[in-house]
Amino acid sequence: MKFEFYNPTRLIFGAGTLSRLGEAAREHGRKALLVTGGGSVKRTGVFDRAVTSLEKAGVSVVECAGIEPNPRITSVRRGADMARREGCDLVVALGGGSTMDAAKVIAAAVFYEGDPWDMIGHGQENWVLPTRALPIITVPTLAATGSEMNCGAVISNDEVKVKSFVKADCLFPRVALADPELTLTVPRDQTAYGVCDIITHVTEGYFNGVDGTPIQDRFAEGVILTAMEYGRRAVADGGDLEARTQVQWASIVALNGWVQAGVDAVHPVHMIEHALSAHHDVPHGAGLAVVNPAWMRFAAKARPQRFAQFARRVFGLQADGRGDLELAMEGIDRFEAFLRSIGCPTRLSELGIGDELIPRYAEDAALVLRDEHGNLLGRPPMSKADIEAVLRSAL
Amino acid sequence: MKFEFYNPTRLIFGAGTLSRLGEAAREHGRKALLVTGGGSVKRTGVFDRAVTSLEKAGVSVVECAGIEPNPRITSVRRGADMARREGCDLVVALGGGSTMDAAKVIAAAVFYEGDPWDMIGHGQENWVLPTRALPIITVPTLAATGSEMNCGAVISNDEVKVKSFVKADCLFPRVALADPELTLTVPRDQTAYGVCDIITHVTEGYFNGVDGTPIQDRFAEGVILTAMEYGRRAVADGGDLEARTQVQWASIVALNGWVQAGVDAVHPVHMIEHALSAHHDVPHGAGLAVVNPAWMRFAAKARPQRFAQFARRVFGLQADGRGDLELAMEGIDRFEAFLRSIGCPTRLSELGIGDELIPRYAEDAALVLRDEHGNLLGRPPMSKADIEAVLRSAL
């Protein structure tokens, strides 16, 4: 293990903490660009409560509404123009992963004179990583991406049908304010997709990281076990605040770097899913639910021991004389059954996706994180034929 | 769960990373007070390598040597005077927990005009928490206290025989540079005491935290399991770099806040041990090895279910028809047997401590972390009679 770890985000966590937004924001600015999504925060009254808290603390608000799911670079351009025009000195994201990701890139785009798409890795020769951004505060209303406490963002470009990411230290939120009460109204399907997203963040490192990370293995298993137990409860009863609380906490630790420290993870399942949702407006977590088990069955053949450990520690399975691969496959079956049990799709057809564009998805998936042979990084690395085969197995 | 989390320390981890000290320091200052302990860093050549790296990067060095185990406030005063006199703009700690803790308080004392002992909580009316400190860089040479990546420090006052602590945001090191190669020469007994310290950091929160922290439970269990497995190896073969690496990583995550987030832990075992080592110059980890199992047997009676979980998840024990308390007690026996197996003392007599001062230890243990009745905070809170009984059970 040889690595660096850094995460300076201050986390304020717990039911009822939304009322502290103004106080937290006031330490970082006076005029906030308040970035929001499709309108649910207005319907639930959360938007008004956030504005009240901000204004009471002396922070004025300029609203940038309408960030779409799979947020577009066009929204980033619009938000950055607005922040510049209005002289905002702070960006507050109030919404799900899409809203938070857009807000982060907006905060950096304010200081960048070129096209913000330059900052999103898409195979370009000069990837312009941002080094400066307005202070960012995240207020998640959905437990899923973990974007609230990390320095990454995923942005889509509809013109070229590419969905990709940026990671940079300046994108760490100054404050993440996570109030599980805000997630009580998340619909059942979105709740389930969030749970799948959480688990997939952790399985990526668990299955694609380096060897010799015993503590991180245990951390990952702990997040998965908890996300499954409380995720099931949150899907069954959206008003279960204890379940919402544990799922939200799981979503944060699943991708704030704690589970990944030293693991040197890559994210093939995410890369494949991004290729799908660049072309089809499917919820990210639903796409992952289809891709992850299919990918696992492919990867288990190369590393049955690791997947057998997953079967044992997460599902309590015993070998009972079977070999690692057989045990591994039962673990994957159990995982897929869990996803179905909470209402996630596990076939491409359920997402309305056919086989027409499979070669294109395979091409796009390896656009950024690829080795010198053009294979998608992972354990094992995947050729385009491998990616196509995995996707066909999930039709 | 309702909590705040913040830890802005940048961690550079891995074998061979000592060579990056200069580069890391140069970002934070030009003239370093290099704080060291008893001389082992000189004998091993680590001191020279650190100085070379610093000077090569353009950071000049003023040495503050001779920080003792259970570091004294007198050393803090001396270090702060030296840093002021020499105009240091940076403090680098090269050593174990004692050296790092002293260095932290020195860094704050530079800006404090009163006596630095005011900053250490010892029951005084006005506890002066520091708000400003020179930038701190920690380079641990021992895997134990986890001080390298947190904002706490423990300091002893020999005049009044009190050992206590301070925690403040300004004491977070800017950089923790953890190179497991530096721990290869740690003697067997110190290695074992370090392993006990690591495990005890985690058991404190596990047994004294709030209910409803399932992820943190799993994290804690993961740290304990890993510290036991690799700790045993590191004690058996000090040159086992893989074991040293995992133990060092365990020591960092055991007390950088990741395991404690949301747990709202208090530390009765540490408070009792501090009372002992304020009067007797015993290694902190050795004192913990005596106090922790004795405390566990006391606390298990109040919360058998929790200790039964520990027995099941850490030692793989099955109830086999027994009740929780019986299972719990077997888990504690196993834990104590583990400590003995790596060479830790588990009786006060092995530390050369008799029963003469037991009432005084009980008094001192509840000096700072006490409830309104003067009981030592924990689950359950401990009266002075409880503390005395626990200590007598360990004679």
From TrEMBL, chains A, B:
<dbReference type="GO" id="GO:0046872">
    <property type="term" value="F:metal ion binding"/>
</dbReference>
<dbReference type="InterPro" id="IPR001670">
    <property type="entry name" value="ADH_Fe/GldA"/>
</dbReference>
<keyword id="KW-0560">Oxidoreductase</keyword>
<protein>
    <submittedName>
        <fullName>Alcohol dehydrogenase</fullName>
    </submittedName>
</protein>
<dbReference type="GO" id="GO:1990002">
    <property type="term" value="F:methylglyoxal reductase (NADPH) (acetol producing) activity"/>
</dbReference>
<dbReference type="Pfam" id="PF25137">
    <property type="entry name" value="ADH_Fe_C"/>
</dbReference>
<dbReference type="GO" id="GO:0005829">
    <property type="term" value="C:cytosol"/>
</dbReference>
<dbReference type="Pfam" id="PF00465">
    <property type="entry name" value="Fe-ADH"/>
</dbReference>
<dbReference type="GO" id="GO:1990362">
    <property type="term" value="F:butanol dehydrogenase (NAD+) activity"/>
</dbReference>
<dbReference type="GO" id="GO:0008106">
    <property type="term" value="F:alcohol dehydrogenase (NADP+) activity"/>
</dbReference>
<feature type="domain" description="Alcohol dehydrogenase iron-type/glycerol dehydrogenase GldA">
    <location>
        <begin position="8"/>
        <end position="180"/>
    </location>
</feature>
<feature type="domain" description="Fe-containing alcohol dehydrogenase-like C-terminal">
    <location>
        <begin position="191"/>
        <end position="394"/>
    </location>
</feature>
<dbReference type="InterPro" id="IPR056798">
    <property type="entry name" value="ADH_Fe_C"/>
</dbReference>
<dbReference type="InterPro" id="IPR018211">
    <property type="entry name" value="ADH_Fe_CS"/>
</dbReference>
<comment type="similarity">
    <text>Belongs to the iron-containing alcohol dehydrogenase family.</text>
</comment>
<dbReference type="InterPro" id="IPR044731">
    <property type="entry name" value="BDH-like"/>
</dbReference>
